Amino acid sequence: MTDKNEWVIFIKNIPYDINENGLSEWCMSFGPVKECSLKRDRFGHSRGFAFVSFANIDGYSNILSSGPHSCLGRPLIVKSANEQKSSNDSPSYASDQQSQATSFLSTNDNFSSTTVDNGVAFDDENQNHLANLRDELEANLECLQIAHDHEVKILSEKLAKEKKLYQDALESYKDVEENLTKVREDNIRIRTSLIKNVMQTFNIRRNLARQIKEQINNCSQIEGQCDTLRQQTT
């Protein structure tokens, strides 16, 4: 009797559009699924194979005995993993994936073993080629993203420096303008004060001139009176 730790199925040639939920729903038609581990590359893309753990031996036996299987028009390779599942990316699964690479499907009136093996081999070659192209494109995209981020960082730093220089220049201009306004106001006050002083000096001189004129007139009158007195005395 199969042990519960061996109720794990290896499925290959899975369409790349299928995710864990879709694969789990497909497997649930054979029995309750305990866990579905769809393998992905470092960019998060499906690698086209998975390990599915059934909750009981019935689902495990049903999926193995009811082949061949297909999904979205693609034939699936379904067989027992024969190893206990410990983690999504454990070395045992990687080695199992390499050792299980040989095409496998039960024969019936719709599929012949030769046709399936040739189709799977051709599909594996295309998958590897597409995977390599995708990895290269993803690497180039990552490099472009890094270069873009670097350029954005440099431009951002340059813009920040220019903004700071502009702000400093604006502050300096404001300080100069304020100082110039203050100097102008001081000059106006000084000029106003000087004009007042000049006017006061002019008024003082005018008053002095009037007083001197009056004194001269008084002196003339006194001198006339003196002459009159001399004449009367004579």
From TrEMBL:
Coiled-coil residue spans: 127-232
Aminoacyl-tRNA synthetase recorded as keyword: no
Domain RRM as annotated: residue spans: 7-83
Taxonomic superkingdom: Eukaryota
Keywords, alphabetical: Coiled coil, RNA-binding
Keyword Nucleus recorded: no
Molecular function terms, GO-annotated: RNA binding
PANTHER family: HETEROGENEOUS NUCLEAR RIBONUCLEOPROTEIN 87F-RELATED
Protein name, UniProt field: RRM domain-containing protein
Species of provenance: Adineta ricciae (Rotifer)
Lineage: Eukaryota, Metazoa, Spiralia, Gnathifera, Rotifera
